[in-house]
Write the structure tokens for this entry.
Amino acid sequence: MVAADAIARETGRPALGAAAHTAYVHGMTVVLLVAGLVAVGSAVLVAARMPAAEPAGAAEAGPAARAADAGDPR
């Protein structure tokens, strides 16, 4: 973009500098929108693939308590 500004000054065509700035802003807008969509899509996929949460008491109870709840005669 600095080169476009220098060329615009040397040639006396300020429209060239304005066009370069507009193109840069447009390109950055497109890149940031795509990056945002990829981030949202990734978050949705991670949320869909995460294992289900355990019931509230299951995390606190040890393996023996869970085995007893499952009908294991230990």
